[in-house]
């Protein structure tokens, strides 16, 4: 038998490599986006329009965080501004601040006043997980806390689900994960939402308020029961047009700063 020529063997090797590359590309290619039905897109747009018309929110806030068998309680002033700016100043019983958190488009600042240290991190879900325990992006967090929930952007698929004990809901799926929103189809007012992004699905319940009124509380819980964040508002106000400079967190000299940017 005549052995194959080196030239022919090389051609076969190239063909095998090209085929393997093509198969690998097919296996890793993202799922194509499906056109949402008119009903699903209309429901999503009503919720999104409510989010887009949101300006700012301010309130006294009482926050209770339960995780890893520990309970932390904070009380202070919460400021939110669309699309993704936040400031929370936790006060001691005697008035001076004990913790300041500021979220801006480019960074999150966490200043632990009593420990005389501060952390500056890139604005990301992980940065918000560090102080609140929830790995949510700044815009999602601002939307939830203000009661103006931000629906998934550019979803790959979606469906209107029949009513359950919480009412009708909208399911959306993107490359980052899935979101289910229980909302009033006429006003876009969301009463409950679930996020399934990564290993820790979260359920959020928004209480009180109405189409034009701010909520009186938000409860966030991981579905595995390991985390519960309960927030209660006192005298909440929405769209007051407060000075954006109030959102700034400036760490003074003498504080130990760890900059992870």
Helix content: 10-25%
First-residue to last-residue Cα separation: 66 Å
Count of separate DSSP helical elements: 4
Q: Tell me, rounded to a whole number, the average pLDDT.
A: 87
Under the CATH scheme, which architecture would be assigned? Clam
User: What sort of overall outline do the alpha carbons produce when their principal axes are compared?
Assistant: globular
Catalogue the unreliable spans: 6-31
Biggest sheet layout = 14 strands, mixed
User: CATH-wise, what's the superfamily?
Assistant: Lipoprotein localisation LolA/LolB/LppX
Strand content: 35-45%
Give the radius of gyration.
24 Å
What do we call the CATH topology? outer membrane lipoprotein receptor (LolB), chain A
Would you tell me the structural class of the helices and strands? alpha+beta
Question: How many runs of DSSP E, i.e. beta strands?
Answer: 14
Helix and strand pattern: HHEEEEEEHHEEEEEEEE
Number of domains: 1
Oligomer: single chain
Report on the architecture of this protein.
- The chain has helices at 6-28, 38-52, 125-132, 138-146, and strands at 56-67, 70-81, 85-91, 97-103, 107-112, 117-122, 157-164, 167-173, 178-183, 190-196, 202-207, 217-222, 227-238, 256-259.
- It is globular, with a radius of gyration of 24 Å.
- With 261 residues, it is α+β, with helices and mostly antiparallel strands.
- It contains four helices and 14 strands.
- The protein has one domain (38-259): outer membrane lipoprotein receptor (LolB), chain A, CATH 2.50.20.
- It has a 14-stranded mixed β-sheet, with helices on one face.
- Residues 6-31 have low confidence and may be disordered.
- The termini are far apart.
- A hairpin with a 4-residue loop joins strand 8 (167-173) and strand 9 (178-183).
